[in-house]
Structures are given as structure tokens and as C-alpha cells.
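Fill in residues.
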């Protein structure tokens, strides 16, 4: 079975990114909402994190933007090597986005609890490079399993509860996205516990 990759989201500083790398992260989720400042200052902070990562660790921008131009501008400004679209965007935006970001990977988020999740997966399976699904509780397991099988694409499963890790790993996703959710957005002890649990699988 291929190695289960680890993405860490909720990173808001180079120090936090360093801790994630030490814990074995293969990718870092760069979320603009983690920064109080908007505009160029926020992008510079994200870019500083991305550019300080080792070559083997991929910086992935997380964005709620819905147009190709806005997404591409954010990707370039943050020095990201991939982008996770936090909301489904119009399929007509995909060709332009792929052209502008020049081969960087696109990960499309889909809510597995959405009534049209299956139809959305079928729509984006031919457009995106990977899918991102939130596994919020055990009730989502069946839906995520179905969507992973339907997609035929690499899938990222996002967890906030480490207790779900064994069940998530059993679905054989491309990667686990561990979303740090401490009071300050970064819970180092939780990160260490999660990394240890992943290693033990």
C-alpha cells in the first residue's frame, strides 16, 4: 500500500511550519484567514512560510476565491505550488485557471454531507487534480468512502479529531490533512500525538 502522506493545515508562522515539517508533513496548508492583515502583507507572510519550506514539502494555498483570476493572483503572491479551492467553483473557470497557474496542482474541496456531493465529484473528476473531503465524524465515513471510489482521483481527507485517523487511513486516501484547532490555531501537543499515531499505523 502506498505511504499515507500528511498535510498540516492551520499554519500561521515559519516556526509553526518548522514544527509541522519536523512532525513529518509532506505538505503545508497556507490559509490567508490565519492572518489578521489583508492584502499584500498577508500574502508576504504566506510567501515567507512557503519559501522557507524544504523542497520535499509542498506549500498549498487554501482559498475561498471563486474566479480564476483571483485564485491565480493569490497563488502567485503566496508562492504556493498547489491550491485547494475551498468552495466549488464554476467549471468554466478551470481552463483559465490551469493556463494561468502553469501546471500547479488544483485540489477541489467538496462537502461529503452535501446533497449533491456525488454529482459534484463526477463534475470535478475530469477537471481537478485531486479532491479534498472533510471527515468531521464517524457518520461521514460511508459518504467519504463512496466519493473516493467515485472520483478516481487522489483524495485528501481532512481531520480535526485524531481518533478518526485509523478509520480514515482504512479508506486509503492520498493524504490526511490534519487541521490544527487549538485556541491560537496551533496545538503543538496535538500535532505530536497525531504524528505518532500516523507513524504507528
Amino acid at each position: 500500500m502506498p505511504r499515507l502522506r500528511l498535510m498540516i493545515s492551520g499554519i500561521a508562522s515559519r516556526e509553526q511550519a518548522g514544527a509541522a515539517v519536523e512532525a513529518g508533513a509532506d505538505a503545508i496548508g497556507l490559509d490567508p484567514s490565519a492572518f489578521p492583515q489583508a492584502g499584500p502583507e498577508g500574502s508576504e507572510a504566506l510567501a515567507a512560510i512557503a519559501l522557507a519550506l524544504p523542497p520535499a514539502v509542498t506549500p498549498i494555498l487554501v482559498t475561498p476565491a471563486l474566479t480564476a483570476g483571483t485564485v491565480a493572483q493569490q497563488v502567485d503572491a503566496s508562492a504556493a505550488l498547489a491550491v485547494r479551492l475551498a468552495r466549488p467553483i464554476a467549471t468554466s473557470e478551470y481552463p483559465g485557471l490551469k493556463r494561468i497557474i502553469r501546471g500547479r496542482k488544483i485540489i477541489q474541496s467538496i462537502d461529503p454531507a452535501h446533497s449533491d456531493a456525488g454529482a459534484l465529484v463526477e463534475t470535478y473528476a475530469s477537471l481537478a487534480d485531486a479532491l479534498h473531503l472533510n471527515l468531521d465524524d464517524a457518520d461521514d465515513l460511508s459518504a467519504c468512502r463512496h466519493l473516493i471510489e467515485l472520483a478516481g482521483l487522489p483524495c485528501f481527507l481532512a481531520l480535526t479529531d485524531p481518533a478518526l485517523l485509523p478509520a480514515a487511513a482504512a479508506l486509503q486516501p492520498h493524504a490526511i490533512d490534519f487541521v490544527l484547532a487549538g485556541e491560537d490555531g496551533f496545538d503543538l501537543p496535538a500535532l505530536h500525538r497525531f504524528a505518532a499515531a500516523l507513524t504507528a499505523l
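Helices lie at 14-22, 40-52, 68-78, 94-101, 117-124, 141-151, 165-170, 188-200.
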